[in-house]
Design a protein that fits this description.
With 426 residues, the protein is mainly β. The chain has a single domain (14-420), classed as 5 Propeller (Tachylectin-2, Chain A). The protein is 4% helix and 42% strand. It has an eight-stranded mixed beta sheet, with no helix packed on it. The chain binds beta-D-fructofuranose. Residues 49-50, 73, 85, 88, 118-119, 134, 198-199, 216, 271-272, 336-337 line the site of beta-D-fructofuranose.
Length: 426
């Protein structure tokens, strides 16, 4: 039993409220330009989606012998795009300049936990690698399952030389965190859509030096006597941003803490939570989908964000509603899994190209299209990088860079071209 427990216990937490989310709308400054089919696809033989960079403890993009490293969920491109989550495998890509990338291959040699591996983060600490990931599915089960736990691989090495970058095992895989049922919902407690407990993100707080793992989860929101059927159903949408702390700073030992933020009655999935510190403020970003909003709240697939004066909160939604970046209405599923990182005075946002030429309002319709079309409309590679200005509680898109463009923090960028940005609905 935690000292404080239950969905409404714990520290005074922030909640993304229905009232705040009611003002979500596409506006100039939160809509990315139409991208179309990929202009740059260095790995056409692979579907590539959620991507994260190797960083040091302080959040700086790591330099390994002159290369920066990206880790991505991948699957063979001949697979139907909708099936990729079932076979996801983490690969490493590396680049000397953040433009041209090469494939270092799958990072694990078969020993990873779970039936498949979903998103995570990668830490390079004093020459040691810690690859955090989601172990999805129960490896002991015969059929495919949706259990999720937070895992790490360590003990492997990275070598960089003239010939490129090589990661080698053996890796030690460990489960780090599972839901406790009090702050974080277990699979058995889940009443609605599939529960979430995934996407670990390493973060050291520059203000306190404390080490944390953020993750996507759900806050228990059980049926309450007296609630009407509508409220009971809304409470099935209970996404939260979880956090665990390592009191000693050891990247392998974590204790759960109460969620930083929840979205009970607003949204079921606050995906890939991560923090960017700018001007001493904490910008907490998550991705979410149109189909995971609770009944009565609408929002597009997008990057949503919150800001606070300390990591603990209390978080306020950016731009009033939380919406930071979304796709144009003519291609509402063009990109997903946005990941923001600081660059000089601005923030850059990397994502993957999803269904770039599909105007339907639900992805379910994709599965009705002929298979060749499903593949043609799916990017499966990195989308143009977005440039974002952050100023207090407000953000504004400023333009784009090429896909696969990951400049280092000190690299100067060309002037932003805001004329390429579309107007919104408002
Ligand atoms: C976001 C996401 C992650 C998960 C992965 C699975 O795109 O849903 O939360 O780790 O995709 O493919």
């Amino acid at each position: 039993m935690h000292e404080t427990s239950g969905s409404d216990g714990g520290r005074p937490r922030a909640r993304w409220t229905r009232e705040q989310a009611a003002s979500i709308e596409r506006r100039r400054g939160n809509v990315a330009p139409a991208a179309g089919a990929p202009e740059i696809d260095p790995f056409p033989e692979l579907h590539i989606w959620d991507t994260w960079l190797l960083r040091d403890r302080y959040g700086e993009i790591a330099d390994v012998g002159g290369y920066r490293l990206a880790f991505s969920l991948t699957a063979p491109a001949d697979l139907l795009p909708g099936k990729r989550h079932d076979v996801a495998e983490i690969r490493c890509f590396y680049s000397p300049d953040g433009r041209a990338w090469r494939d270092a291959g799958p990072v694990f040699d078969g020993g990873a936990l779970g039936q498949r591996q979903w998103a995570g983060s990668a830490l390079y600490d004093d020459g040691d690698l810690y690859l955090y990931y989601t172990a999805a599915g129960d490896e002991a089960a015969d059929e495919m399952t949706y259990t999720q736990r937070i895992a790490v691989a360590h003990g492997g090495t990275v070598a960089a030389g003239e010939g490129g970058v090589e990661l080698s095992g053996p890796w030690t895989h460990e489960t780090l965190l599972t839901p406790d049922g009090e702050w974080y919902e277990t699979e058995a407690q889940s009443r609605g859509m599939t529960y979430t407990f995934r996407d670990p993100w390493f973060f050291e707080d520059p203000a306190t030096g404390e080490t944390h793992l953020l993750f996507e989860a759900n806050a228990p929101a059980p049926e309450r006597p007296g609630d009407d059927a509508e409220t009971t159903h809304r409470r099935e949408f209970n996404g939260c941003v979880g956090i665990a702390t390592s009191p000693s700073g050891d990247p392998l030992s974590w204790e759960l803490r109460p969620p930083l933020l929840d979205a009970v009655e607003v949204n079921q999935e606050l995906e890939r939570p991560h923090v960017v510190v700018a001007d001493g403020r904490y910008y907490l970003f998550v991705c979410s989908h149109v189909h995971t909003f609770a009944p009565g709240v609408t929002g597009p697939d997008g990057l949503y964000g919150f800001v606070a004066d300390a990591l603990d909160g209390e978080y306020r939604p950016l731009n009033g509603s939380g919406l930071v970046a979304t796709n144009p209405p003519e291609a509402p599923f063009q990109a997903y899994s946005w990941m923001a990182f600081a660059h000089d005075e601005e923030v850059l946002v990397q994502s993957f190209l999803n269904y770039h030429d599909f105007a339907g309002d639900s992805l379910d319709a994709i599965a009705d299209l002929p298979e060749a079309e499903q593949r043609d409309r799916f990017g499966g590679t990195l989308a143009p990088t977005l440039r974002l200005a952050v100023d207090g509680d407000r953000t504004r898109l400023r333009g784009t860079l090429d896909g696969w463009r990951i400049p280092t923090p000190d690299e100067p960028l060309p002037p932003a071209d805001e004329s390429e940005l579309p107007d919104g609905d408002a």
